């Protein structure tokens, strides 16, 4: 049952910004990969590892914040995470080698993931599953705007300044979100003082979440499908700038174009939820995404993957992601209220852990061609679809 809140629009906007901290921190520095590699006298695939370490940090950090959110409420752990994010982002300004940047990006992610976990948990505090899916679509709108704005903003900064100013901008954004959280975001859950933070008790709560069939199914389906986007994030800078020869500003525009697919999808998703349920929508999007991924691989193998074709296919691929992510997230979290923090943390950990794996695979198999990025994107879509289709009996038993 939705609770009454004041300034609902402002609250949703802040939750959207909290959810977008991680994506913005990923996307804004993508145009600077080659510049950072040159500055540190290293290779682009080494710089890609700073993206992988960020994914690992987000995956690991969410397991820490989940229990804290359930015990102390939503705001205190959230504000602590934002302070960590701001501090480590500022430290990135002073790093002088790629190894330190990789470590700092891991620590930066530990701070940023507080916003991602807290925002999902707060949605569960207020909304029932079907309405939560609509709210997730609203948040996805904000998240989807970040890859439209962030690379373009990063490319614009690089035209006049060096890559350090990207991290200075991220620190400023983090500080503004911290102020909004302190003064404008009301506490949605006071916390449970009896919630134990002992490792055995925490593991017991996580086990309770993981053994729920609804959670496990939709967490895997959504996370594996979403990891195709992370493969794209890891490989897009090289493929578009080095392989196809785009400038930094052109890359920013191309990135913004394909990211607009998620904006379109999430808004359509809000409308069609009135007619179809989340499971039906996510399954259809799974089929769509697998077909597009297969077309990318076939186009590459046949030698027909020119840049306009690639751009169009990635647009269509991310269109599928815009339907899969909000619906599978809402379904995975739907069985939980009191354990919303722990469930949100596990969901985020699974999403980002698989995302770290796929981005790492793109970096590991880097061979100066689009093959690693395109192949991993295709495989993630097909594996997600296979799990979804193989679980028909379980889905039939889940009350929508």
From TrEMBL:
GO terms for cellular component: plasma membrane. The chain crosses the membrane at residues 9-26, 46-65, 77-96, 102-123, 135-157, 163-185, 215-233, 253-273, 285-305, 311-333, 345-365, 371-390. One of its GO terms (molecular function) is xenobiotic transmembrane transporter activity. Residues 11-399 form the Major facilitator superfamily (MFS) profile domain. Its main location: membrane. It is found in: Cell membrane. It is a multi-pass membrane protein. It comes from the Bacteria. The keyword Kinase does not apply. Keywords: Cell membrane, Membrane, Transmembrane, Transmembrane helix, Transport. PROSITE patterns: MFS. Belongs to the major facilitator superfamily. Bcr/CmlA family. This is MFS transporter, DHA1 family, bicyclomycin/chloramphenicol resistance protein. It comes from Sphingobacterium psychroaquaticum. The lineage of its organism: Bacteria, Pseudomonadati, Bacteroidota, Sphingobacteriia, Sphingobacteriales.
